[in-house]
Specification:
Low-confidence stretches: none
Radius of gyration: 18 Å
Distance between the termini: 11 Å
Order of helices and strands: EHEHEHEHEHEEEEHHHEE
Helix content: 40-55%
CATH class of the largest domain: Alpha Beta
CATH topology of the largest domain: Rossmann fold
CATH architecture of the largest domain: 3-Layer(aba) Sandwich
Number of helices: 8
Strand order of the largest sheet: 2-1-3-4-5
Length: 228
């Protein structure tokens, strides 16, 4: 699990049922949760509570999520995850251009939202995290170490970045292009087969000969099996 004591999340959605469901789930995960049902309330809550993460619905009456996102980024550097009922490229581009950090299409699983929240916290507020424990993995950014079953792995900087990425996003299937962008950078001009080379090396170090830890979904990408 991620150690999240003191981390504040603001939920912004005009549907009470969604707010109640997400609030209950996130509080059970240890977050301090605030809610707002419209854009102006969201702006007020951000000023008052300065949340670390904002989960922001796009389709709201009055001030929509895009306008709220624009205003929030001027007030406070929270990580913003936008929610929409439409899987439109234009909407995603608009939200990201205005400063959103991630984008999810309704309906979505709570587990995926939680994984994306964890990723945003790690990227924005690494100083708040004492340690991340996910299944048999422990990730310590202060020491740049990853342990598996209490054994510290001997990893190069690139192996560390890659394993951290796939483990912390273990509920998602990550394509080669996503891995390249995150680990090697958007301007990487080499062969994408380098991902396979590094995955093979990580499997060797994890003694994962049967590919039961780092799994391959043919034609889609890689994901990590976390039991329990």
């Amino acid at each position: 699990m991620l150690l999240v004591k003191g981390i504040k999340i603001l939920l912004v959605d005009d549907e009470p049922n969604i707010l109640e469901f997400l609030e209950m789930g996130l509080e059970n995960e240890g977050f301090q949760v605030f809610t707002a049902q419209n854009g102006m309330s969201a702006v007020t809550m951000v000023k008052e509570h300065q949340p670390h993460v904002v989960i922001l619905d796009v389709m709201m009456p009055g001030m929509d999520g895009f306008e709220v996102c624009r205003m929030l980024k001027k007030l406070h550097n929270a990580a913003i995850i936008m929610l929409t009922a439409k899987d439109e490229v234009g909407d995603r581009v608009k939200g990201l251009t205005l400063g959103a950090d991630d984008y999810m299409v309704k309906p979505f699983s709570f587990e995926e939202l939680l994984a994306r929240i964890h990723a945003r916290i790690r990227n924005h507020y690494p100083h708040l995290l004492s340690e991340v424990a996910i299944g048999p993995f422990r990730i310590d950014d202060r020491k740049l170490e990853i342990s598996y079953n209490k054994q510290v792995l001997d990893l190069s900087p690139t192996e560390y970045a890659l394993l951290k990425y796939v483990v912390t996003n273990h509920s998602l299937v990550l394509s080669k292009s996503m891995i390249l962008d995150h680990v090697w950078g958007y301007d990487f001009g080499g062969d994408d087969n380098i991902v396979e080379v590094y995955i093979r090396s990580l499997r060797d170090k994890l003694n994962d000969r049967e590919h039961q830890i780092i799994r391959t979904r043919r034609g889609a990408g890689y994901w990590v099996e976390i039991q329990g």
